[in-house]
Amino acid sequence: MKKKNILVIFIISIIFLLLLFTMTFTNVLCISNSKDSSERYYSLQGFDDGFIISYTHSVNKGRVHDYYTCDKRTGNLCLNSTFFVSYGAGIPEPEETPGAVFQVLDNGYLINDINRVVPKLSMAVGLIANHGYAINYPGYDKPGIIYDEILFTDLFAPQTSIILQTKRVTLIEYLLHKI
Questions:
Q1: How confident is the model over 10-59, as pLDDT tens digits?
Q2: CA 88 to CA 90: how far, in whole Å?
Q3: Bridge partners of residue 121, in order along the sequence
Q4: Which residues, listed in sequence order, are joined to residue 53 by a DSSP beta bridge?
Q5: Mode of pairing for the β-strands spanning 77-84 and 116-118
Q6: Contact assessment for residue 179 and residue 42, using Cβ atoms and an 8 Å cutoff
Q7: Where is 16: in which H helix or E strand?
Q8: For the chain, N or C: smaller number of CB within 10 Å?
Q9: Under 8 Å CB-to-CB from 102, ≥6 apart: which residues?
Q10: 67 Cβ partners below 8 Å, 6+ apart?
């Protein structure tokens, strides 16, 4: 009788865990191959705290960092600010975006309050641009200095078309595809 009780408890525990992992949902930032959705990565912290897309500018060859947040209500992405080290062709002018604030810093230039909202961000993984992803740590106030950057070429083949967007996924999906 005792072995039977243990077996019942074990089976109930397994069922509970399966339900927990398949019925519990969470919001994440999803970075996926636009042509093969099985090639995807999830970031809970990128959704919660925001993220940074970095790349080498094609004209002035300086590193650019675009700071995004995820709207928790709509799921949209919002470009809040951009940091760059060299000012020139292809870099936005502050007056191009009403309300944006341009700052000259010791280590480069910063445009804040851009507030450009998009439902998703599409891009191609570049070798020369050296696209990267990092978490925007809350309260971190040193624009241009990035920690724990992951290059997209470490995740996807060069020239792969990728999409960054928010998604609601099960706990097991998140655990299987987290960055």
A1: 777 777 766 666 666 899 999 999 999 899 999 999 999 999 999 998 88
A2: 6
A3: 164
A4: 66, 133
A5: antiparallel
A6: yes
A7: helix 2-23
A8: N
A9: 94, 109, 110, 111
A10: 50, 52, 79, 80, 81, 82, 83, 136, 143
